[in-house]
Specification:
Elements lengths: L6 E2 L9 E2 L8 E7 L8 E7 L6 E10 L2 H7 L16 E8 L11 E4 L2 E3 L5 H4 L11 E2 L19 E5 L4 E2 L6 H4 L5 H11 L7 E5 L3 H12 L3 E6 L5 H7 L3 E4 L3 H5 L5 E6 L7 H5 L2 E9 L11 H5 L4 E4 L5 H14 L5 E5 L3 H9 L6 E5 L6
Parallel strand pairs: 12-13, 12-15, 13-14, 15-16, 16-17, 18-19
Antiparallel strand pairs: 1-2, 3-4, 5-6, 5-10, 5-19, 6-7, 7-11, 8-9
Helix pairs in contact: 4-5
Bound molecules: NADP nicotinamide-adenine-dinucleotide phosphate and zinc ion (ZN) (2 copies).
C-alpha cells in the first residue's frame, strides 16, 4: 500500500494548487482538457487516475459527448463547482485493464460510463436501481468527492478513466461508437422519464428544445409509438425535427401555432437549457397531463398556480437514469438502430463547440474524438 501526498494539478497557465491526497496505490497520469476557473477556457492539463482495484475497469476513452451540463458546471452556473474542473460524462472507451474480480467486461471490449461512477449501493434508492438518487449522494463522473484519490472526480474530456464495474456499461455490438457516446447522458435522461410516465401509442407527446437531449427525446418518443410534437425556438430546425421523428413541429415563438395545441397533450418533456416560460407549455397539457423538466437553467423558473390547478396537471422533474435502466436503454437503441446525430470534433475545438452549443447551433450533439488528445 502506497501513500502519496502533494499531488499537483497541472492546469496550464494557472496557479498550481497543491492537494493533499491519500490513496491505496500510486495513480497514473491521464491527459485531459479542463479549466481551473469559471471564467477560463478549457485548456490541456494532466489529471490522476487510480490504479485499477479488484473490481475496477480501466478504459482508454475513445469518444466523449459534450453535454450542456458540462458548461453549466465548468462556468459555475450551478453552485458547488470544484476546480480544476474536467467535464465529460458521455464516455465510450476500450477496456485496457481489469481487476481480478471483474466479470462484466474484459480487456479489449468496448465499455461506457455515464454520469455516475459510484454510489452507496445500500440505500433504498440504490437498491431500487435508482443510484442517481442515492440518499448519501451518488458519486458523479466529475465534480464529486473522489473516494479513492481524495479531491474530486474528473470527467471524460480525458485520455483514460477507471470506474468500478458496477458503474461500467456494456456497449452492444453494431452501434456506431461515436454516436453512442451521447446516449450515456442525453439518451438515458430522455429515455427514463418517457418510460416512467409510460409514454406510448395513443398519446400526444411534446418535446421542448431540439438540442442534445431534445433530439433524443424525439427519437425515443417516436420509437415508443406516441404522436410526437417538437417545440423549437429555431425555425431552421423544423425540417430536422420532422426527419428525426416528430410528426409535427411548432415554432414556439408563434403564439397562434402554440394556441392551436392548448389543453391537448398527455405528456411534455422540457429539455431547455436556458430561462423560458414554463406556463406556456403547462397550458398545453390536458387534464392530468404531465410536464417533466429535465433542462436545468441557471435561475429558478416561475410556475403560475393557475397553470397547474386548472385543470389538474402534474409538474415533475427527472434526473438521468439508474445503471440497469441505462444498460436497458443501450440494448433498446441497438435493437431499434437509434444513436445520436453528432458532429465529431477534435478536442482542440472544444471552446468553439461550447460557444456554438450556447448559441443553439448544435446538430445535435458534439462528440470529441479523443484520439485528438494525443496530437
Ligand atoms: P443543448 O444541446 O444546448 O440544447 C438545449 C436546447 O434548448 C437548445 O438547442 C434550444 O433548442 C433550447 N434553448 C436554448 N436556449 C434557449 C432559450 N433561451 N429559450 C428557449 N429555448 C432555448 O443542451 P442539452 O445538453 O440538451 O441539455 C439541456 C439541459 O438539460 C441543460 O440545462 C442540461 O444541463 C440539462 N440536463 C439535465 C439532465 C438531467 O438529468 N435532468 C441531464 C443532462 C442535461 P431550440 O433551438 O430547438 O429552441
Ligand atoms: Zn449530461
Ligand atoms: Zn445509495
Amino acid at each position: 500500500m502506497t501513500e502519496a501526498k502533494g499531488l499537483r494539478l497541472l492546469a496550464s497557465g494557472e496557479p498550481r494548487p497543491t492537494l493533499q491526497v491519500f490513496f491505496l496505490s500510486m495513480p497514473t497520469t491521464a491527459r485531459a482538457f479542463g479549466t481551473s476557473a469559471a471564467v477560463n477556457p478549457l485548456a490541456p492539463m494532466s489529471i490522476p487516475r487510480r490504479e485499477p482495484g479488484p473490481t475496477d475497469v480501466e478504459m482508454e476513452i475513445l469518444f466523449c459527448g459534450v453535454c450542456h451540463s458540462d458548461v453549466h458546471t465548468a462556468r459555475s452556473e450551478w453552485p458547488g463547482t470544484q476546480y480544476a474542473c474536467v467535464p465529460g460524462h458521455e464516455i465510450v472507451g476500450r477496456v485496457t485493464r481489469v481487476g481480478a474480480k471483474v466479470t462484466k467486461v474484459k480487456v479489449g471490449d468496448i465499455g461506457a460510463t455515464g454520469c455516475m461512477v459510484d454510489s452507496c449501493r445500500t440505500c433504498s434508492s440504490c437498491r431500487q436501481g435508482l443510484e442517481q438518487f442515492c440518499t448519501s449522494g451518488a458519486t458523479f463522473t466529475y465534480n464529486s468527492p473522489d473516494k479513492h484519490l481524495g479531491g474530486h472526480t474528473f470527467g471524460g474530456y480525458s485520455s483514460a478513466i477507471v470506474v468500478d464495474e458496477a458503474f461500467t456499461l456494456r456497449v452492444p455490438k453494431g452501434l456506431d461508437l461515436a454516436a453512442t457516446a451521447p446516449l450515456l447522458c442525453a439518451g438515458i435522461t430522455t429515455y427514463s422519464p418517457l418510460r416512467h410516465w409510460k409514454v406510448g401509442p395513443g398519446q400526444k407527446v411534446g418535446v421542448v428544445g431540439l438540442g442534445g437531449l431534445g433530439h433524443m427525446g424525439v427519437k425515443f418518443a417516436r420509437a415508443f409509438g406516441a404522436h410526437v410534437v417538437l417545440f423549437t425556438t429555431s425555425p431552421s430546425k423544423v425540417a430536422d425535427g420532422l426527419r428525426l421523428g416528430a410528426h409535427e413541429v411548432v415554432v414556439s415563438t408563434d403564439a397562434a401555432a402554440m394556441a392551436k395545441h392548448a389543453g391537448s397533450f398527455h405528456f411534455i418533456l422540457d429539455c431547455v437549457s436556458a430561462q423560458h416560460d414554463l406556463n406556456a407549455y403547462l397550458a398545453l397539457l390536458k387534464l392530468d397531463g404531465t410536464l417533466t423538466l429535465v433542462g436545468v437553467p441557471e435561475q429558478p423558473l416561475a410556475v403560475h398556480a393557475f397553470s397547474v390547478i386548472m385543470p389538474r396537471r402534474n409538474f415533475s422533474g427527472s434526473c438521468i437514469g439508474g445503471i440497469a435502466e441505462t444498460q436497458e436503454m443501450l440494448e433498446f437503441c441497438a435493437q431499434h438502430g437509434i444513436v445520436s446525430d453528432i458532429e465529431l470534433i477534435p478536442i482542440q475545438q472544444i471552446n468553439e463547440a461550447w460557444t456554438r452549443m450556447i448559441k443553439q447551433d448544435v446538430r445535435y450533439r458534439f462528440v470529441i474524438d479523443m484520439a485528438s488528445l494525443k496530437a
